[in-house]
């Protein structure tokens, strides 16, 4: 039984992909980074450290460009459901919330071809909480 659990754990970890690059955030802003991506699936993770009070809606608006042309777009929610987590802690007590760690968001894209790719990202609040301390909200790109 332990071998089966270990096999599932290893499959989950190897299925998460390798970090190709990241776009750094310490507040809501727009930033970009250029990285070499392969054709195929691109997954987006968040590396977040946030504490807030009240309702909140935060999103990464992502545009991938190759040769100056948009080849893929995605919208990802770092406060939404995170199914794959590493080094993760989360608390929700009344209207007080915290999240700290790395998590795979429920979004991704498929690139038709590989090569140098500019990843343009806007991190923006749709609903800003009454109080917020955002220490980090990096977008992590994995393949």
| Total separate domains | 1
- In terms of DSSP E residues, the strand content is over 45%
Strand order of the largest sheet: 1-9-3-7-6
Q: How many helices does DSSP assign? A: 1
Topology as H/E string? HEEEEEEEEE
Distance between the termini: 30 Å
Computed structural class: mainly beta
Indicate the low-confidence ranges by residue numbers.
3-14
| CATH architecture term | Sandwich
CATH class: Mainly Beta
What's the oligomerization state?
Answer: single chain
Total number of strands: 9
Q: Any overview of this molecule?
A:
The chain has 143 residues and is mostly beta strands. The protein has a single domain (19-142), classed as Jelly Rolls. The protein has one helix at 2-14; strands at 19-23, 29-37, 40-53, 57-66, 69-76, 84-93, 96-111, 115-127, 131-142. It has a 5-stranded antiparallel beta sheet with strand order 1-9-3-7-6, with no helix packed on it. The protein has a 4-stranded antiparallel beta sheet with strand order 2-8-4-5, with no helix packed on it. A hairpin with a 2-residue loop joins strand 6 and strand 7. The model is unreliable at 3-14 (pLDDT under 50).
Provide keyphrases for this structure:
5-stranded antiparallel β-sheet, Jelly Rolls, elongated, 68% strand, 143 residues, mainly beta, 4-stranded antiparallel β-sheet
Can you describe this structure in just a few lines?
The protein has 143 residues and is mainly beta. Helices cover 9% and strands 68% of the residues.
Write the layout of secondary structure elements.
Layout: H1 2-14, E1 19-23, E2 29-37, E3 40-53, E4 57-66, E5 69-76, E6 84-93, E7 96-111, E8 115-127, E9 131-142
Antiparallel strand pairs: 1-9, 2-8, 3-7, 3-9, 4-5, 4-8, 6-7
């Amino acid at each position: 039984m332990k071998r089966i659990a270990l096999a599932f754990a290893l499959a989950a970890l190897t299925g998460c992909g390798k970090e190709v690059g990241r776009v750094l955030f310490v507040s809501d802003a727009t930033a970009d980074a250029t990285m070499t991506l392969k054709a195929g699936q691109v997954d987006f993770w968040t590396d977040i450290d946030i504490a807030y009070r009240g309702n909140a809606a935060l999103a990464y608006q992502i545009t991938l460009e190759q040769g100056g042309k948009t080849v893929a777009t995605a919208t990802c929610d770092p406060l939404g459901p995170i199914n794959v987590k590493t080094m993760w802690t989360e608390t929700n007590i009344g209207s007080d919330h915290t999240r700290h760690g790395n998590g795979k968001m429920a979004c991704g894209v498929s690139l038709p071809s590989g090569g140098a790719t500019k990843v343009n990202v806007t991190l923006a609040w749709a609903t800003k909480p009454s109080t917020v301390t955002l220490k980090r909200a990096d977008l992590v790109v994995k393949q």
